[in-house]
Amino acid sequence: MKVTILLGAPGSGKGTIAEKVRDACGVIHLSTGDALRAAVKEGAEVGRKAEEFMTKGELVPDEVIVKIVEDRFDAGAGDEHFLFDGFPRTENQAELLEKGLEQRGSSIAMVVLLDAPRDVLMERLTGRRVCRQCGQSFHVRNIPPKVEGVCDKCGGELYQRKDDEEETIANRLEVYKEQTEGLIARYEGLGLLCRIDSTADADEVGAEISAMIRGA
Question: 161 catalytic, yes or no?
Fold first, then answer.
């Protein structure tokens, strides 16, 4: 079993890049959000524990999240290559993950950090516009509608969600920085971290990471 971790701030393109790498390399793309929802849906004991916190609007404890990830490890054949999208998020999660891998005779193969300047991240995130009627997403620069403010799909009004407003985005980026500074330093110190410029074309970034995984 091998594990590659993909880190990056909101707007760095983690989800898009992870899908491209998954399709190119056949790795198992695993995000904690997807894993949590699957565990809850399956009704497993750890899923029920997670649901207790989620229904209260509380954060799921690190131990529960890592247990869900470990259960996914143990459900496989043992020779899979997992690609984590934005996990671990904290140093405590990282320590728990490393212990779990060690118990299974495995370790982290590499950690890829998708780097992008703050102004690029802000532009990407604040530029999103969503149709009030059908929910279709656009971007004022990257995926603009044919007519400004009008949805190509249904003709509905496009608007900026509160989550995409500048103040909210700035706070999300600050929280990410606080959470991951120590994590990035940890992996850098272990010689596992590789920085990739995520302002490049997504296909190029995906191909570069795919080549690294094949050589791991």
Answer: yes
Question: Is 14 part of the annotated catalytic residue set?
Answer: yes
Q: pLDDT averaged over the chain?
A: 92
SS3 193: strand
Query: Which residues, 6 or more positions from 214, have their beta carbon under 8 angstroms from its beta carbon?
Result: 25
- The H or E element containing residue 112 is strand 108-115
pTM score of the predicted model: 0.86
To the query of whether residue 141 is one of the catalytic residues in this protein, the response is no
The torsion angles phi and psi of 63, rounded to 5 degrees, stand at: -60, -40
Backbone dihedral angles phi then psi of residue 213, each to the nearest 5 degrees: -65, -40
Q: State how far the alpha carbon of 45 is from the alpha carbons of 50, 67, 73, 158, in Å.
A: 9, 10, 16, 42
Is 128 among the catalytic positions?
A: yes
